[in-house]
Amino acid sequence: MKLISLLFLFYLINPGVVISQQNEPEVTNLKPVSGKSYGLNKLIPGEYQYMDRSYLFNYIPEELIGTVHIKTCGNDKLISENDTCVSFDVDCDVEVYVLFGDKWPEIPRWLNQFERVRLNVTRQDSRSDNLKGYFSLYRKVFPKGTITLYGCSPVEMLREEWFVKSMGANYCMYTIAVKKR
Length: 181
Fold this sequence. Notes:
- The protein contains 3 helices and 10 strands.
- By secondary structure, it is mostly beta strands.
- It has one domain (2-6, 27-179).
- A hairpin with a 6-residue loop joins strand 7 (115-124) and strand 8 (131-142).
């Protein structure tokens, strides 16, 4: 019911935008290495970004509204860039977008294989008046099959005692959008 209400409100505010229900890739076999539950949803304003946080998306670029969103867990941000974080299967060729927090002083090395696109996403925390995060989008095309993404934390940051002791405070785990190619 909440999703229907949010979609109705979104359509009232943005009457020209169409959220596609067709031609979406099927994402299956979602396997986070941490053992935590990751979820599938739609990438729309007002929807939760993570499984374990109450942060809501604020701005989503029109090109990505309604795409498949893989909700990760905020506490998985300490997984090393060298370690597998999550894998999933897709039933067609796709564009994978990694929504990566702009607060990080550097990106994980594996993310250099993605193209930084000129799109961004914003989100709010549990208070609707507090803009909490600004995320850059990184895109890569993948063929039908299994996709594996790696950890969020650069090795250099994991060597910093303050970063590990604080559990990565003030830094955000990435989330994922999947769009049919």
